[in-house]
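Changelog-adjacent note: as of this version, every example in the card shows the full chain rather than a window. The one below runs 316 residues end to end.
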Amino acid sequence: MIKIQEVVDDAKCYEQVRALRWPERVTCPYCGGHKIKKRGYHSNQAGRQRYQCRKCKKHFDDLSKTPFAGHHQPLKVWLLCLYFMGLDLSNHQIAQELDLNKDDVQEMTTYLRQMVYDRRSPAQLEGEAEFDEVYLVAGHKGYPTIVQELGRSGRRNRLKGARGRGTLEAEKPPIFGMIQRSGELIIQMLPNVQQKTIQPLIQQHVKPGTLIYTDEYNIYFRLKTWGYAHKTVNHSQGEYARDEDGDGFHEVHTNTIEGVWSLLRSWLRPHRGISQEKLPLYLAFFEFVHNVRKRGKALLSSLLQLLLAPCLHANS
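Full-length structure tokens:
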């Protein structure tokens, strides 16, 4: 059997990193200086260029001050792992593809998702947007101490959530979603869905005056007092879209965000039994993939650009 690691060229991986990290010229990651002197290559990593900054005199290389520095796995393994994550392969499938231990792959994918979570830029919505919530079953898989603190033994079978709306404490956390029509998506796991919980999130990410479409759940009743225009569809009465201006186009609906929930469930399906501790990382990765609207090699380039850029902020 051909191992995929053996057909990937190390030098080309570093060329790709350099092209994305320094599209114009090499910059010192310590002081930002541009007067750089090359210092050859690493002896055991083909293509990994060494440099010295003439300004601050510090030495660095292609991976210095990036999420890929300081790990024992070669760069090509990290890039392949990231590529397979973009294809939505499970940790077990990635381990098979890369011929690695599944625990090592789990550690790598968790780390990469955390980096995406920390580095993604917060979206700002305006114009027309849709809000909705969905509830996912998520316990504490992989966290036996927490399970013991809850006073129960671990489960062998799939966790089943209670019917109806849930909370984080009840192991059925709500996922709150906001999407600008023809724009970006924001999804976030919340402890519950109450007005006091969603108000700070909405005011942080949605421009005042935005026209917001929702269903008739009462948590949205105060949107107008918070400075937003608001229209609803009555799902309980079988209404899913409404034409208010008579132009034949049913503009009042929440079909866009509901379509996102369908995509999200499909995205999470290969990753069985995600704990609520790690679910926000999966949501952040899905959110990023959805917003860049790319797949395959194009998605890999976008992910690499995000991870190689200086981390100027971190999402809470």
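Structural remarks: The chain has nine helices and ten strands.
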